[in-house]
Backbone:
């Protein structure tokens, strides 16, 4: 005998067999609905009664015998899967619609008439089969009574009377859950502490697997705040939209739904519950547990859609729907079901505080293509060939993304930028009900289900971008993508010891992500020295953090092997697959062991001991093997300037990295596999919640600058160049520049940046107005390329020297040529060009070597500082070539100082950095009375010039150093190097003379090889390279 329980009735009536053809097999497959039962004769009622001790009625399932009227117990269990029919036959009419009409006409099918509003077996929720324990008819096979009842089976009760008399209700009382399934909320706990961590973005699951979307223990509260009525173009007539405001912890969002959406949700949840009750696994069953007395967990019925009457009736219906949702949202069984999350428009990315506000979400169809990068579209940007795909769209405050419904993986991330624009309509989207979202690197076209939805989505996306994300949809000062950020903690570093120690401390404290981008990365570098153990080795530190769950992403510069031999391929293999959390993954060998080291080697291990002019690096896959003789060749020291920023500027820098990473993943085929994840930017709304800070920071206004092009980030920006030009133009007292290169002064053809031109114009302005204005320029005495300088240097050295001298003093476009033409020899009162040199002992003899200036820094007026990776040349500044980063720091905290003998309020950050640099350069430790406060007065400028000239003369006398003003031609150079230096002839006398050296400052030799043409010949490999490589 077959029975069926359905939503809305406590029993089902089955017509006699003579009224309809007999059918074999089970009557229903959940979630589809079918004819459900047959019996040999008569009518049988199957009734589900709660166990009530008060009236003495037995619990469980019973049948009412048609002849005697007695209640007979029936043993029930779920029908086996082999007897459940799949597929849909006849649509929704197959099991109920046709029979409803026959019964309403007085029981044509042989069954009794039924009350209005109770459809016969409409969408039955559960197909059951069993044996009649009292009937004399042939019994079905006896089945053991299950130990656990199906979920909520006792809650199937009759539908409550509708608040609205205009039709049927969908009974939701069957969705009742047992008390142990209802979330218990802890009192006194901050809901923000229960929200999902940011690392959840790397562990997304398919939506249909019911991943944990809401924070455990944090309630979800729904409120129907209003309705909207509109007339659709179809025959349906007037429709009502319910605006539902939802709150989950600190997150609040609004969704708009029709009544039919509530109906569909109700049916989906009911099917889900019945399906779970049918599963044979015990873990899906919920043990019977009586509800606490007085605690009714039955959910109010869902009212039937119908013509709206008075406003009072509308308000009652709003309240009814609100109660319906709130009761469902207290039950985790339903709350995390994918039908519920789709209805509420939430996903695993909704409630991550670092991603910002909840935003807009939902299922859409998106069109392929639209990329503005050549080669990513079938027929260019016209998109002749495309396809539509169903995706889950997530819109946050500064970006949008879409996810694959089947896998849950993020398929694309579109960052909002100044090219942001949203359009609606077929004219713009070439699709009915289309929405077009434009940014600088892609036009994404979405397809909605109606024009109303398209307008709603376009409005919400625009409001999100123009609200919290407005910082990134407009250009800021200097045409930068990032705005100035006041109140930022910043700290400067001079040289590598302090900088890399701070990097090591930051890595140790990292909890979520580490981003590294570098032109050359040596994985085996020791960040803190002396290196007594491997604890501070970079690759080992990154591996430990990856094992802790931190995700490490690395972007390396792909070198031109003809010009650089930094072997970035080895860095990939040696570092990026130490752990799966270090991306991108490639195969790598075991970590090279650290050899036993002497005291000297504890500071400069293996190839750290280098002199790149004597010999360039080789065999970089053997980092601890020396490649020059430590006993005879002095090491070349490097000078660098670094900076650390906290808070919002750090988020801006991370956004630049993420943009470049995602762009690389999109454009490079080998990175499109899922193992290279898309990265998501954190919201600036939580940027000031700093987990830690580095000591020694000073408060200032910081703006992030960059140079990028369409090949590197999908957009063009040269804000570093703009900031340099503006800072030089607006400077009032002095400029201090340290840079690895100085190739400028535009001729409109070979060199295009105008940094040198602005310096000339500012000096000419000061000369015309009679102002005291100083420019200090520090450059490396020789370019950092391998070459024998005693024979004129290699082709690479000569090529860089050619463009450097062209900027400084040679040719009609040079700085000094233009200044001499305007003021004669008075140019010496305005500008000083110098380098740095040091000396020491090696093998019992005095030795000297230049200090290679690798800094990229500008200080103006002791109030403004630019520090970054950009050299002063076209490659770094135009944006069309190398990708560079810098920060513009403007002091907001002042302290008393001097400027040209007058009291002056100098910025603490800029003043402390300049005074430290001048102290080291001028040897202030040995000159206790040296006053570094005033960099403009005549006394200090003369001291600067005298120190540089004196030191240069001493070094030339003792070591006959190169480059030198005494060697203006190759012939003079050959004669110059054959003379033995004093350091070799008389070391004691040389040591005595070296005691007169003060600091490291020396004049830059402006006349070195001035009689020679220094560009490489066409017969060399350097000569056939484009000039853009050197400029």
Residues:
């Amino acid at each position: 005998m077959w029975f069926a329980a359905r939503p809305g009735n406590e029993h089902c009536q089955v017509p006699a067999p003579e009224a309809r053809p007999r059918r074999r097999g089970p009557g229903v497959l959940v979630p589809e609905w079918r004819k459900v039962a047959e019996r040999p004769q008569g009518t049988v009622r199957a009734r589900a009664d709660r166990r009530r001790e008060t009236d003495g009625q037995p619990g469980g399932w019973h049948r009412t015998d048609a002849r005697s009227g007695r209640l007979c117990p029936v043993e029930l269990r779920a029908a086996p899967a082999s007897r459940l029919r799949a597929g849909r036959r006849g649509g929704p009419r197959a099991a109920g619609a046709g029979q409803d009409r026959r019964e309403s006409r007085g029981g044509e099918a042989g069954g009794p008439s039924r009350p209005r509003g109770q459809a016969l077996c409409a969408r039955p929720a559960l197909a059951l089969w069993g044996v009649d324990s009292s009937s004399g008819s042939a019994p079905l096979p006896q089945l053991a009574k299950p130990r656990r009842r199906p979920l909520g089976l006792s809650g199937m009760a009759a539908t409550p009377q509708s608040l609205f008399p205009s039709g049927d209700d969908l009974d939701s009382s069957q969705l009742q859950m047992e008390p142990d399934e209802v979330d218990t909320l802890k009192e006194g706990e901050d809901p923000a502490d229960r929200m999902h961590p940011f690392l959840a973005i790397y562990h997304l699951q398919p939506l249909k697997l019911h991943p944990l979307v809401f924070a455990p223990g944090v309630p979800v509260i729904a409120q129907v705040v209003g309705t909207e009525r509109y007339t659709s173009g179809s025959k349906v007539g007037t429709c009502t939209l319910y605006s539902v405001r939802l709150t989950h912890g600190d997150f609040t969002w609004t969704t708009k739904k029709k009544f039919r959406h509530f109906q569909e949700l109700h049916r989906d949840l009911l099917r889900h519950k019945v399906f779970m009750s049918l599963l044979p696994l015990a873990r899906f069953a919920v043990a019977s547990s009586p509800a606490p007395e007085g605690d009714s967990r039955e959910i109010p019925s869902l009212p039937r859609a119908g013509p709206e009457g008075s406003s009072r009736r509308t308000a009652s219906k709003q309240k009814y729907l609100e109660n319906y949702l709130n009761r469902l949202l207290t039950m985790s069984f339903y709350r995390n079901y994918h039908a519920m999350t789709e209805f509420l428009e939430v996903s695993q990315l909704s409630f991550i505080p670092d991603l910002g506000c909840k935003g807009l979400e939902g299922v859409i169809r998106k069109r392929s293509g639209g990329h503005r990068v050549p080669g990513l579209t079938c027929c260019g940007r016209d998109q002749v060939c495309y396809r539509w795909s169903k995706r889950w769209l997530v819109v946050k405050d500064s970006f949008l993304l879409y996810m694959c419904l089947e896998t849950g993986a993020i398929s694309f991330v579109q960052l909002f930028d100044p090219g942001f624009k949203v359009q609606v309509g077929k004219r713009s989207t070439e699709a009915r009900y289309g929405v077009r979202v434009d940014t600088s690197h892609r036009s994404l076209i979405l397809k909605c289900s109606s024009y109303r939805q398209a307008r709603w989505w376009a409005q919400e996306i625009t409001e999100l971008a123009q609200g919290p994300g407005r910082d990134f949809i407009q250009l800021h000062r200097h045409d930068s993508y990032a705005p100035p950020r006041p109140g930022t903690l910043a700290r400067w570093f001079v040289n590598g010891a302090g900088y890399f120690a701070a990097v090591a401390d930051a890595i140790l404290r990292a909890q979520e992500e580490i981003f590294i981008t570098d032109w050359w990365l040596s994985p085996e570098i020791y960040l803190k020295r002396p290196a007594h153990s491997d604890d501070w080795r970079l690759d080992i530190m990154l591996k430990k953090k990856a094992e802790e769950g931190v995700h490490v992403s690395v972007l390396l510069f792909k070198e031109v092997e003809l010009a650089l031999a930094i072997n970035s391929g080895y860095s990939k293999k040696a570092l990026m697959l130490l752990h799966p959390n270090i991306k991108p993954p490639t195969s790598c060998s075991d970590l090279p062991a650290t050899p036993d080291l002497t005291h000297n080697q504890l500071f400069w291990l293996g190839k750290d001991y280098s002199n790149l002019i004597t010999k360039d690096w080789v065999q970089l896959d053997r980092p601890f093997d020396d490649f020059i003789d430590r006993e005879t060749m002095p090491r070349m020291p490097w000078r660098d300037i670094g900076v650390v920023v906290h808070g919002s500027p750090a988020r801006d820098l991370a956004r630049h990295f993420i943009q470049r990473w995602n762009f690389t993943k999109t454009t490079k085929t080998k990175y499109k596999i899922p193992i290279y994840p898309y990265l998501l930017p954190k919201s600036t709304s939580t940027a000031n919640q700093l987990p830690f800070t580095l000591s020694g920071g000073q408060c200032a206004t910081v703006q992030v600058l960059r140079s990028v092009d369409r090949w590197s980030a999908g957009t063009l920006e040269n804000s570093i160049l703009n900031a340099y030009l503006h800072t030089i133009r607006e400077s009032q007292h002095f400029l201090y520049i340290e840079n690895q290169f100085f190739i400028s002064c535009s001729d409109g053809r070979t060199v295009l940046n105008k940094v040198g031109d602005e310096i000339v114009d500012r000096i000419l302005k000061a000369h015309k107005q009679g102002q005291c204005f100083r420019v200090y320029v520090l450059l490396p005495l020789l370019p950092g390329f391998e070459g024998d300088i005693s024979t004129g240097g290699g082709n690479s050295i000569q090529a860089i020297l050619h463009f450097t001298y062209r900027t400084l003093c040679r040719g009609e476009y040079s700085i000094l040529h233009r200044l001499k033409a305007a003021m004669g020899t008075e140019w010496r009162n305005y500008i000083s060009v110098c380098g740095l040199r040091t000396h020491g002992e090696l093998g019992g003899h005095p030795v000297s070597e230049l200090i290679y200036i690798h800094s990229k820094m500008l200080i103006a007026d002791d109030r403004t500082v630019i520090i970054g990776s950009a050299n002063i040349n076209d490659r770094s500044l135009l944006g069309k070539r190398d990708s560079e980063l810098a920060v513009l720091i403007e002091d907001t905290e002042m302290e008393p100082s001097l400027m040209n003998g007058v009291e002056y309020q100098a910025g603490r950050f800029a003043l402390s950095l300049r005074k430290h640099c001048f102290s080291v350069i001028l040897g202030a430790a040995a000159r206790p009375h040296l006053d570094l406060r005033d960099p403009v007065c005549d006394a200090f400028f003369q001291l600067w010039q005298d120190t540089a000239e004196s030191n240069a003369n001493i070094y030339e006398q003792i070591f006959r150093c190169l480059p030198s003003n005494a060697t203006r031609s190759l012939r003079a150079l050959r004669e110059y190097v054959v003379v033995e230096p004093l350091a070799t002839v008389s070391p004691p006398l040389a040591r005595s003379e070296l005691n007169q050296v003060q600091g490291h400052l020396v004049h830059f030799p402006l006349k070195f090889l001035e009689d020679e043409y220094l560009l490489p010949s066409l017969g060399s490999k350097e000569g056939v390279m484009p000039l853009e490589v050197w400029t």
